[in-house]
Amino acid sequence: SGRVPLYVALPLDAVSDNTTLNHTKAIATGLKALKLLGVTGVSLPVWWGIVENEEAGKYNWSAYQSLAEMIRNAGLKLRVSICFHATSNISLPPWVIKIGESDPDIFFKDRAGKWYKNCLSLAADDLPVLAGRSPMQVYEQFLSEFKSSFSGFLGGTIT
């Protein structure tokens, strides 16, 4: 057909930090409109700080699963970006921040010595600084849980 697939970003606050799906009616209406306009799908960040919020290894995908179901029902595709950093509105998981209070070296620090508590240091990637696991192990487990939790959407709705 020669058409370029078009994906529209969903609002960054579509899912809140207490794993609540926000603006449900507006999103549902918007998804129908996007489908009518010929949009291929939507893009959505999936935040580590939202999903693994309560404690290490405890994942709550419910709001993201509800949203994926809405997107599938609208006949659209979904592209996700997995976000292991924080923003002004979404923090790293509280249990990670607590670890960083006693071990600030887990956070990124620039050449001037300024700490950035919105992301972990690359220097800590392979060190067991997160409740006995390395950040890479934590990220790998997160991605594995994502794959398992969204297996019914992968390759179809989630592209």
Automatic annotation (TrEMBL):
It catalyses: Hydrolysis of (1->4)-alpha-D-glucosidic linkages in polysaccharides so as to remove successive maltose units from the non-reducing ends of the chains. Gene3D superfamilies: Glycosidases (3.20.20.80). It is an enzyme of class 3 (hydrolase). Its EC number is 3.2.1.2. It comes from the Eukaryota. InterPro entries: GH, Glyco_hydro_14. Keywords: Carbohydrate metabolism, Glycosidase, Hydrolase, Polysaccharide degradation. Pfam families: Glyco_hydro_14. One of its GO terms (biological process) is polysaccharide catabolic process. The keyword Transport does not apply. The keyword Hydrolase applies. One of its GO terms (molecular function) is beta-amylase activity. PANTHER family: BETA-AMYLASE 1, CHLOROPLASTIC, INACTIVE BETA-AMYLASE 9. Belongs to the glycosyl hydrolase 14 family. This is Beta-amylase. It comes from Nymphaea colorata (pocket water lily). The lineage of its organism: Eukaryota, Viridiplantae, Streptophyta, Embryophyta, Tracheophyta.
